[in-house]
Amino acid sequence: MALFTVTSPHATGPLNTARVMQLVLLATIPGVLALSWHFGWGVLVNIVFACIVALGAEALALKLRKRPLGFYLGDYSALVTAVLLAIAMPAYSPWWLIVVGVGFSILIAKHLYGGMGYNPFNPAMVGYVVLLISFPVEMTTWAAPRQAFAGEMPGLLDAINVLFAGREAVAAFAVDGITMATPLDILKQNNSLLVEDLWAQSPQFGQWAGLGWEWANLGFLAGGLFLLSQRVFTWHAPISMLISLTLISALFYDGGSSASGGSPLFHLLSGATMFGAFFIVTDPVTSAVSVKGKIIYGALIGVLLYLIRVWGNYPDAIAFSVLLMNFAAPLLDYYTQPRTYGHQPSSKEGGE
């Protein structure tokens, strides 16, 4: 299948990439604040360190490619990749895990293909999947939420010490209850309790989904709606994803038996649902471009997300779902291009 030029309409003015990236970074603030409040300083420490590593990796790649540093570093794309990957990683991740993930995202998933605008796969999600497959223990060691924490929450200095020295070197991390399985993982492994009983005896569950996770999802939803209001992207892909996830989870919801995969509200406010819908699925480089293509693209991500969560090997699946559909995006665009203005259907198309 040959590559082709996307049909009109096209942008008629200069695209201010830096402004778009700044808006994306600004929109992550509500979700990041919610994560930081519920899971501690480790979230912010991850983000700051990931940004430092991303700028260094970006500068190295640009120097090797003999590109001007100031121009390309000033578009904020490296910082967006770093922030998105750091948000997706567990709080209090070790420094080397962040270096590997961010370095792979910038150097391999982005610059190996030609830099921003040429990468076929979302760089942050590529880095996340590489880490999850290579270091499953570190990538599934999630911090307990504040409400279920056994002891005093670690402070900023504790979080910095954990980043460089490891959990075993910090006294605050010696207490029981510093880490817990996520609500998605608990529900996935449940095979004996009704959902109502599981909810009552597990400290990780909140009012609608997981403690902390539900508020983080609402925060990213607020940020996503802000980006929609600024016309950074259109509604087609994220809303299509959320609708398909809602429909398929409602279709298979059995009311809360021991084999239940969870209610629609649980799936909408668990894991990285809203973060993925508004900050990952909407990536203009790796997603479908046509309107119909965006709708199909988002809907299939929602379906894959539910299928992998409930019957796959991973409790959350935004990264895998997005990368699988990155493969399919060019095919979707090929078959969903709108008719060019003024084009007359051929006799075969007209059924004559």
UniProtKB/TrEMBL annotation:
BP term (GO), one: electron transport chain
Modified sites of kind FMN phosphoryl threonine: T182
Keywords: Cell inner membrane, Cell membrane, Electron transport, Flavoprotein, FMN, Membrane, Phosphoprotein, Translocase, Transmembrane, Transmembrane helix, Transport
A single Gene Ontology CC term: plasma membrane
Cross-referenced NCBIfam families: PRK00816.1 (NF002011), rnfD (TIGR01946)
Role according to the record: Part of a membrane-bound complex that couples electron transfer with translocation of ions across the membrane.
Protein name per its UniProtKB record: Ion-translocating oxidoreductase complex subunit D
Source species of the chain: Oceanicoccus sagamiensis
